[in-house]
Amino acid sequence: MRSLALEQVSIWLPRLSLASLWICCITGILLCYYYSPGYNAFRSLQELTYLVPFGKLIRYTHYLTGQMLAITLTLHGMDFFILKDNLMPSRKWFRLTTAVVLSYIALFFGYILKADTEGQFALAIAQNLLSSIPLFGKYLATVLFGQDGSLTFSFVYHCFILPVLMVWLFRPHLPSVIPSMESISFAIVLCIIFLFLPYKPQDLPLEGIFLEIKGPWFFWGIQALLKYTSIIIGALIIPFVGLGLWYSMGIFVKYRGYTRVAFIVYWAFYLALCILFGLGII
Question: CB-based burial of residue 165 (10 Å sphere; 0-12 exposed, 13-18 middle, 19+ buried)?
Answer without folding.
Answer: middle
